[in-house]
């Protein structure tokens, strides 16, 4: 068969920039230097306007971090007009909290410094993540303007973001440890904090989004499964209530029957909820 096709461009092509080093931090026992990397999913150059961006943080109990593993599930957001920046951060065997937060803020500053290259609007940024990455997204949003967490390069850039979308994110480490349906993951909180949560309330407070919520906190969209055996859904309910009590715009969607890291979170209905939220708050 031989045919001539007459096509019009109905959607842009996509690029993937991998292995982009955004920071260098102490490596093996502090004796070496380790690159921290990110991946950028973006539309072909030549878009009429700079685009809003979503910073994505994968989960793994702060023990294992693969910033590329969820990329296939994030393409919907690039097709919808967002740049996606998926960020590697140090795991808890490499550094304890708040290193993960300072890494994430460094990634945001790096992208703002290179916004033109990736055709990103630096004033329209959201943070999104799942599980441990959801915790990181929440912490990034509630610590807007908290300079003690800005460490490293590009300090002339702000790490402020405009919206947060945690998927079944850990909220208060002590509550998550004590109230989860399984004790299999209790050790991850000790590894993250550098001490048992029960014995270190000051460490728990430093890693608890509730500590930093104010009436100027940016809008939140929370997603959580009702059958989550790792992170209690009640923790997202508590975070939602706290946000609302401070006058913060917040939505909580509970996915009936969904477990931790459930395929239900990857469905088109959820992508639409997220895209509609972002279109409202990243105008």
UniProtKB/TrEMBL annotation:
SUPFAM superfamilies: alpha/beta-Hydrolases (SSF53474)
Keywords, in A-Z order: Hydrolase
Keyword flag Calcium: no
Top-level taxonomy: Bacteria, Bacillati, Bacillota, Bacilli, Lactobacillales
UniProt cross-references to InterPro entries, sorted A to Z: AB_hydrolase_fold (IPR029058), BD-FAE-like_dom (IPR049492), GDXG_lipolytic_enzyme (IPR050300)
Protein name: Hydrolase, alpha/beta domain protein
BD-FAE-like domain segment(s): 49-243
Pfam families registered for this protein in UniProt: BD-FAE (PF20434)
GO molecular function: hydrolase activity
Species this chain originates from: Lentilactobacillus parafarraginis F0439
